[in-house]
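During the reporting period the student researcher (J.K.) took over the structure-prediction task from the postdoctoral fellow and processed the backlog of single-chain submissions. One of the processed entries is reproduced below for the supervisory committee.
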Amino acid sequence: MITNLHIKNIGIIEDIEINLNKGLNVLTGETGAGKTLIIDSLEIISGARFSKEMIRKGEENSFVELCIYEPESEYASDGNIIVSREINTNGRNLCKINGRLVTVNELKEFMKKFIEIHGQNENQTLLDPKTHLKYLDNFIGIEIKELKEKYQEYYKKYCNIQKELQENYGDDKEKQRKLDLLKYQLNEIEEAKLKPNEEEKLEETRRKILNSEKIIDSLNTADEAIKENSIDNISNAIRALEKIENIDTKYEQVSSNLKNIYYELQEISRDISIYKEDIDFDEIEREEIEKRLDLIYSLKRKYGNSIEEIQKYAEKVKSEIEYIENLEEHNNKLKKELEELKIKMTKYGELINKKRTEHAHIISNKINNVLKDLEMKNAQINVKVTYNKEQFYETGKDDVQFLIKTNIGEDEHSLDKIASGGEMSRIMLAIKKVLADTDKMPILIFDEIDTGISGKAAKSVANKLKDISNNHQVLCVSHLASIAAMADHNYFISKKINNNRTHTNIKLLNEEEVIKEIARISAGEINETTLKYANELRNKKAS
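J.K. obtained the following structure tokens:
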């Protein structure tokens, strides 16, 4: 249950703190005092969307914090769970669960386990068909639990085998598609007949072709310079030095060095001549090289950053082809097991369907009887169970949907076709009354569930809320004296103006104040007659 709620800077609420209690907590008060803002704050802390316009004028952020006490909770050793959400004008959200930062979605999923809010505009839980199935199964209870556990045991194996088959290309079409792709890739690589370092050699040749004119010019210039001047001049220098090399050994050494240079220069000249002969490219060769390089670049884009990586990828593809082609025997075994599981799941799915179909009529009748008390005499709920022959779900083979006919002679519609939020709230109240003993949701919040009702229906709503509060903490915003009189704890919401700003206040009423508040909302004023009526209502609650 919620033990404490702290709200800051939301609308006209500046800073209030509410200590809530077990049972039926009813919030009453002046029109526009902030009752709805309290429900809005509970929606915000439950992960609902938030408009920056809700932040109190002149403030930078809004803050909501609550403490939930669940003694058997796995989330806190002492049972206290502290949840908070801060929203800033710049749109930044700061959500925490027991001090741990979480996303808004994580907060929403977490709070779904503890709080259901049913108001004029918020009945999303009731509109979700998954919830309809849960309501029905909770109503059936232990009779269906064991069947579902056995079904889910098979369903888990079924899902695991399907996953393995998918990973093993167990689907024939998928396997053939994959094999075709792998074989195409392998064939494309093998047809290319790539060679190690081929790309580098082709690039080098390509550079030569592109620069052939420049190379020829440079080699000719170098060749002419060497032959016309350098070799002859060095030869003349050698002959001159030979004449004096016997005079001194240093002349002999210089002559020897010069001869070595002469021989090296002759070797260089021969190399240049050979290089000149090699520079003989035609346009056809250039086009072939370009085409080959384009092929290599294309393969690199698909299969690797180098020829070596492409060849490694080809080996990997070969292995995968071999692996897939040898999987058939194992996959056939898995497929056989899958068919056996389908038979078992179908058997339990049919048993589950039978239970659901039987109890769907019972719960429909019970809900419809409660709706009559809630002044929805012409409304008819039909819990429709549809068996799906082809599909297996985690919960069985059924689609469950709550359908409604609001007036005699009309067709059934899904609940989201209902226009009235008040009708939706009363339908939820009827469902919660029927499921009170089995529903595990600890906190139920009803915002103005009494809209459009009075008299006998109002007393019936009050009684239903009281019944539900025996197994849940219930918070209810109300304008009806009969509901306020049934409360275990009454809170009065008021507003006052200080320094030209409106402020919301909340107060837990004592018994005398409760009587006066019941008198006020019963007739709009407090006098001897209304006080007497308030006491009568309160005494009925006690009895």
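The committee noted the following: The chain has a mean pLDDT of 85.
J.K. will present the remaining backlog at the next meeting.
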